[in-house]
Amino acid sequence: MRFIYFAILLSLPLYGQTADDLFNPPPPEVEQALRERVNLFYQSHMSGQFRKADTVVHEDSKDIFFAAEKIQFKKCDISKFSFESNFTKAKVVTGCNFTYLMPTGRADVIAPFSTLWKLEDGKWWWYVVPFDPKKGVETPFGIMKPTDTPDQREKEMVTSYGQGERVFKGLKLSKDTVLMPVHTKSTQEVTLTSTFLGTVNLSLVPIQSLGLEIKLDKTQLVAGETAKISITYDPPAPIKMLDVKTTVVVEPFGLKLPLTITFADR
Question: In the chain, where are the structural domains located?
């Protein structure tokens, strides 16, 4: 149940602008009424007074809300409204700051959360779509199910592979294989681009290979930014080099983006 609640909150696609958004904006009073209810929902999560959040939860979704483990946020800002069904349903994307417990310790992160709202009896209500274990939950990283193992989830996160690119929903390496000359000193770069609304933390799995150095130019990445991975090889002697594999680790989601360095004898 903890997984379901968190996955629903974090579920994206980050709803893009539709024709309705551009040419048929909601009446100001409709958006203001929704904004007030959304703010109450998240303010209750920030204060830890989750019973107040229940006052905007639809009756059909109260069981899921009560059974779920709650997240106490530090700060939340609404970033996107998307209305449907003649302004009686809405999807709201909110960027929230909270403390995430990782294997290496606690870290403050900012992540995008998406919630569903519907207008009923003149008020906006938070609700969830009934969970189907066969279909799973759509998240920024693909369809996830409570029975998925980390390895299964990692495979599902890969949405495209080919032409030297490995693409994860929200993250993209410019290439996942780098070719280096084995007899001369050279440097190459690989870029990592993020489209997440929140901040992700980056790290490289350490390698031990004589003459090879791999560096990240930044350890945090926000939407639209690019991090550079610099790979330098200075051959200590005319020796044969085997392929070297490293991994870019993306927290707080635990994503792993493999990177392979190969050497050419020319």
Answer: 2-148, 156-264
